[in-house]
Amino acid sequence: MPFRTALSGLNAASADLRVTGNNIANSGTTGFKQSRAEFADVFATTNAGVSATAVGKGVRLSSVSQQFGQGNIDFTGNNLDMALSGKGFFVLSDSGSLSYTRDGSFQIDRDGFVVNNSGKRVQAYPTQDRLNATFNTGNLSDLRLATTESPPQATRRVEAGFNLSAQAEDLSAVPFDPADPGSYGLSTSLTAYDSLGQSHTATLFFRNVGQLQWEAHLAIDGQQVGGAQPLQFGPDGALLVPTGDVGFGAFTPANGADPLNIAFDFSQATQFGVNDNVASLRQDGFASGRLTGVDIDGSGIVFARFTNGQSLPLGQVAVASFANPQALQQAGDNAWLESFAAGDPVFGVAGNGDLGTLQSGGLEASNVEIAEQLVNLITAQRNFQANAQVISTADAVTQTIINIR
After folding, report:
1. How far apart are CA 143 and CA 363, in angstroms?
2. Fewer C-beta within 10 Å: the chain N or C terminus?
3. What average pLDDT does this structure show over 123-145?
4. In DSSP terms, which residues pair with 219 in a beta bridge?
5. How many Å from the N-terminal Cα to the C-terminal Cα in the chain?
6. Taking residues 89-94, what's their average pLDDT?
7. Cis upstream peptide for 253 (omega within 30°)
8. What's the order of all strands across the beta sheet hosting 277-283?
9. Would you give the distance in Å from CA 306 to the centre of its chain?
10. pLDDT, tens digit (0-9, with 9 covering 90-100), for 368-405
11. Is 300 in a helix, a strand, or coil?
12. Is there a cis peptide before residue 242, judged by omega within 30 degrees of 0?
């Protein structure tokens, strides 16, 4: 009688309902990947195989297959939220035990480490050279945000663009005195920094000392540095001398910082018209800075942003891929564990190979389509009802046989 066959159908329909219900329950879970119940028919076999007249013995659940289709990316505005488009998983560490996730909702713990909601630490490649933003891609480490101040940089070079009046008075007979405005023509100031990050006021003075001939003087914090540096212009108003950077000598700060020795680039200087003016002053020093935020680019490089305008690379987020991701072992909390069937993880960075691209400030939504799941729910319900009807019919047939006299 077909009782056992119909019972296998009831079990299969029930499993289909459970899988569909789990998909629907996680339709709002970040990074969730829906599953699909897959079935296989059952035949009774002998040493001779399956007879041509054999009747099937029902159905069995052969696999619950994960579907790693791409979910929509929802933008959150939180820079630590990350989403992957394409293949790849974020790598997490729990005291050295690795797991993998598509849920990029990360945060900072009390020690400055970037973690997920379960406290597992995000893995990244450590910085090898901060100046050139290179990373040690042969070693995974916990991603940690800098909590100390960004170090200062002493001013080493200044680019100055200015125009000196072609009708300036010849002051060669007047001794230069920074305190006497009548001993120079144009003066301009900028802020320079020493090796401790302390600011100093650097003032440039320019004075005409003959036809197309000028002198440049430098004072830092009111103290004259070095002597006069000659500037010579051509008939077209372009600078002829010097041909390279100008150095006035070293200034020794009173705070114990290294001597401040600044090179000045006057190559953009001109002598036109009747008006003195300063077009640009750019120097390469800066003070120390406090952490204000974090930026993550499309390749997963994490930059710390500081109040002094500097950005320092802290690491590059690692991404892993598998030859057969459907065979990954589900571990809960939006995480998977590697398995033999999934293959060994291949580590890299977003944008390389088939590892997909990374989007900061967004999260990948579940790939569950509610309309599709509701249709599956109706189908599974009808299958359950139909198998129950088979049992009811088989019972009626059995009862008829029992009632034969």
Report:
1. 19
2. C
3. 87
4. 203, 224
5. 20
6. 96
7. no
8. 246-251, 260-265, 157-163, 277-283
9. 16
10. 999 999 999 999 889 889 888 888 887 787 887 788 86
11. coil
12. yes
Tell me, what CATH number does 228's domain have? 2.60.98.20
Same domain, 202 and 171: yes
* Overall number of domains in the chain: 3
Are 126 and 163 members of one domain?
no
Could you tell me the two tokens for 4? 């056992």
pLDDT at 13: 87
Is residue 289 exposed (0-12), middle (13-18) or buried (19+ Cβ within 10 Å)? buried
Question: Do 216 and 123 sit in the same domain of this protein?
Answer: no
Residue 74 has which token pair? 């929802």
What's the confidence (pLDDT) of residue 48? 59
Amino acid at 43: F
Domain range for 207 is 157-283
- Give pLDDT, residue 405: 65
Angle at which helices 3-25 and 370-402 cross, to 10°: 160
Whether 41 shows a pLDDT value over 80: the answer reads yes
Mean pLDDT of 345-359: 88
